[in-house]
Amino acid sequence: MAAAAAATTIGFPQAYLEGKEVKETSSLVTELCRHFYTQGWVSGTGGSITMKVHDASIPKPDQLIIMSPSGVQKERMQPEDMYILSPNGSIISTPSPKPYPNKPPKCTDCAPLFMKNRRLSLGKRLRKLGYKAYEMRNAGAVIHSHGMESCLVTMLNPQAKEFRITHMEMIKGIQGHGYYDELVVPIIENTAYENELTDSLTKAIEAYPKATAVLVRNHGVYIWGDSWIHAKTQAECYHYLFDAAIKLHQLGLDAATPDHGPIRSPTKFSVKSGVKDSQNQTEPPRRCIVLDIEGTTTPITFVTDVLFPYARENVGKHLNLTYDTAETQEDIKLLRSQVEEDLREGLAGAVPIPHADEGKEKVIAAVVSNVEAMVKADRKITALKELQGHIWRTGFECNELKSVVFDDVAEALEKWHSSGIKVYIYSSGSRLAQRLLFGNTNYGDLRKYLSGFFDTTIGNKKESKSYKEITETLGVDDPSEILFVTDVYQEATAAKAAGLEAVISIRPGNASLPESHGFKTVTSFSQI
């Protein structure tokens, strides 16, 4: 009766609680718990799963939630053993007790870590995290694992606040990451009771917007996804990567460097003796480098006279050949959205891109016209950069393109890498375009010396908040430990405003700088 009354109160009749969607979700949770038990993730009654009841007729934030109970043998659970929770986390259906030696049912201590507005004696402060996981992260399922690898990986460095790994195939299974990206997972300290983790877990999720997992030292990991399939896939990839990092560490190898070479103590670097800034001050030591591309690692002429013309001349051909692929359709969708915004703002050169039902030829003609106008205006927008990256990929694969870096770049990258210094790229070009450029240079493949890539999806290069976001992503407490090298005065100013140290690159063809600009300048990476 109590369950029926509670269900009716929140808008779900008892018949719905006993309906197909709820039963299927409860069965799925029990099936997954049995599977995870065989993986060692929920043994000893530990671990938990919570999952939205998928119902296409109900908006995701308003869907019911199924949660596995605490303190039970996860491999022996039945669908009727599940808790049913309202969208705000209140219990609307409790499983019936089982005879001795089974324990009375108990809603998991992890509940406040998953839920929003949990109406239990744990209080208002416990409501925050679920809001992050289920609404801000659009979670459809959350998995809490006690897998051995998720525990041990936090012990490799007791002072570390993050787990980092790069250049591993399974990173591609983590939302928003590719093979060449650096995966960063925050680590928080364990507490005696799981419900006491809420504050630190909330802060970790807020500080790491790209994260889909949080490690708890000596304990386990919380992983979420937009559906149970996504959460399960990511959980499998995370556990694989944790295990790989542990084994690499046992071999004395560093999982956080592109070539997974021998573990080294971090080496700080500084500007060479005698090299001064415009105010005659010597730069302090740094430990991370973020590099611009155009006018910094690569001649401006290569971008303006080779890459841009290639993309402009081949956009029609590329669209015709790949029009029916999901990738190109997504490129057209992004450009259409951008053009609609441009038209509202009255930007010159913008022409409407018709929808697919008006014909392939009309769509392609409109896209080509807009791309030409955007390139002519030198616009640094994600929609254009994504399409250009895909066109350039074809050029590099067909050996029609070969990128160029300045003569001092390859040697400097190798030197910094061998010293244990992490180097990243931040460019208005897409991450794909960046990887293509450094993977196909006149000095060979230089990606092995790079730890990650940032593009305009993290923010505009002339806005200081973009550099604050990079600092948080890199996990550097003091932003002055990051050295940003660029040829653009406005970018250097934005980086400095975010607390980074900035150096301006003086290369042939670069724009002139304002007098008394206040930044140190270098004409070669050998001066760093």
TrEMBL record:
<comment type="pathway">
    <text>Amino-acid biosynthesis; L-methionine biosynthesis via salvage pathway; L-methionine from S-methyl-5-thio-alpha-D-ribose 1-phosphate: step 4/6.</text>
</comment>
<feature type="binding site">
    <location>
        <position position="292"/>
    </location>
    <ligand>
        <name>Mg(2+)</name>
    </ligand>
</feature>
<feature type="binding site">
    <location>
        <position position="487"/>
    </location>
    <ligand>
        <name>Mg(2+)</name>
    </ligand>
</feature>
<feature type="binding site">
    <location>
        <position position="461"/>
    </location>
    <ligand>
        <name>substrate 2</name>
    </ligand>
</feature>
<feature type="binding site">
    <location>
        <position position="146"/>
    </location>
    <ligand>
        <name>Zn(2+)</name>
    </ligand>
</feature>
<dbReference type="InterPro" id="IPR027505">
    <property type="entry name" value="MtnB_viridiplantae"/>
</dbReference>
<dbReference type="InterPro" id="IPR036412">
    <property type="entry name" value="HAD-like_sf"/>
</dbReference>
<dbReference type="GO" id="GO:0000287">
    <property type="term" value="F:magnesium ion binding"/>
</dbReference>
<feature type="binding site">
    <location>
        <position position="144"/>
    </location>
    <ligand>
        <name>Zn(2+)</name>
    </ligand>
</feature>
<dbReference type="GO" id="GO:0005737">
    <property type="term" value="C:cytoplasm"/>
</dbReference>
<keyword id="KW-0460">Magnesium</keyword>
<feature type="binding site">
    <location>
        <begin position="427"/>
        <end position="428"/>
    </location>
    <ligand>
        <name>substrate 2</name>
    </ligand>
</feature>
<dbReference type="Pfam" id="PF00596">
    <property type="entry name" value="Aldolase_II"/>
</dbReference>
<keyword id="KW-0862">Zinc</keyword>
<dbReference type="GO" id="GO:0019509">
    <property type="term" value="P:L-methionine salvage from methylthioadenosine"/>
</dbReference>
<feature type="active site" description="Proton donor/acceptor; for methylthioribulose-1-phosphate dehydratase activity">
    <location>
        <position position="169"/>
    </location>
</feature>
<comment type="similarity">
    <text>In the N-terminal section; belongs to the aldolase class II family. MtnB subfamily.</text>
</comment>
<keyword id="KW-0028">Amino-acid biosynthesis</keyword>
<dbReference type="InterPro" id="IPR006439">
    <property type="entry name" value="HAD-SF_hydro_IA"/>
</dbReference>
<comment type="pathway">
    <text>Amino-acid biosynthesis; L-methionine biosynthesis via salvage pathway; L-methionine from S-methyl-5-thio-alpha-D-ribose 1-phosphate: step 3/6.</text>
</comment>
<dbReference type="InterPro" id="IPR001303">
    <property type="entry name" value="Aldolase_II/adducin_N"/>
</dbReference>
<dbReference type="GO" id="GO:0008270">
    <property type="term" value="F:zinc ion binding"/>
</dbReference>
<keyword id="KW-0486">Methionine biosynthesis</keyword>
<feature type="region of interest" description="Disordered">
    <location>
        <begin position="262"/>
        <end position="282"/>
    </location>
</feature>
<feature type="region of interest" description="Methylthioribulose-1-phosphate dehydratase">
    <location>
        <begin position="1"/>
        <end position="254"/>
    </location>
</feature>
<feature type="binding site">
    <location>
        <position position="110"/>
    </location>
    <ligand>
        <name>substrate 1</name>
    </ligand>
</feature>
<keyword id="KW-0378">Hydrolase</keyword>
<dbReference type="GO" id="GO:0043874">
    <property type="term" value="F:acireductone synthase activity"/>
</dbReference>
<feature type="domain" description="Class II aldolase/adducin N-terminal">
    <location>
        <begin position="27"/>
        <end position="246"/>
    </location>
</feature>
<dbReference type="Pfam" id="PF00702">
    <property type="entry name" value="Hydrolase"/>
</dbReference>
<dbReference type="InterPro" id="IPR023214">
    <property type="entry name" value="HAD_sf"/>
</dbReference>
<feature type="binding site">
    <location>
        <position position="294"/>
    </location>
    <ligand>
        <name>Mg(2+)</name>
    </ligand>
</feature>
<keyword id="KW-0479">Metal-binding</keyword>
<dbReference type="GO" id="GO:0046570">
    <property type="term" value="F:methylthioribulose 1-phosphate dehydratase activity"/>
</dbReference>
<dbReference type="InterPro" id="IPR036409">
    <property type="entry name" value="Aldolase_II/adducin_N_sf"/>
</dbReference>
<comment type="similarity">
    <text>In the C-terminal section; belongs to the HAD-like hydrolase superfamily. MasA/MtnC family.</text>
</comment>
<keyword id="KW-0456">Lyase</keyword>
<protein>
    <recommendedName>
        <fullName>Probable bifunctional methylthioribulose-1-phosphate dehydratase/enolase-phosphatase E1</fullName>
        <ecNumber>4.2.1.109</ecNumber>
        <ecNumber>3.1.3.77</ecNumber>
    </recommendedName>
</protein>
<dbReference type="InterPro" id="IPR017714">
    <property type="entry name" value="MethylthioRu-1-P_deHdtase_MtnB"/>
</dbReference>
<dbReference type="InterPro" id="IPR027514">
    <property type="entry name" value="Salvage_MtnB_euk"/>
</dbReference>
<keyword id="KW-0511">Multifunctional enzyme</keyword>
<feature type="binding site">
    <location>
        <position position="219"/>
    </location>
    <ligand>
        <name>Zn(2+)</name>
    </ligand>
</feature>
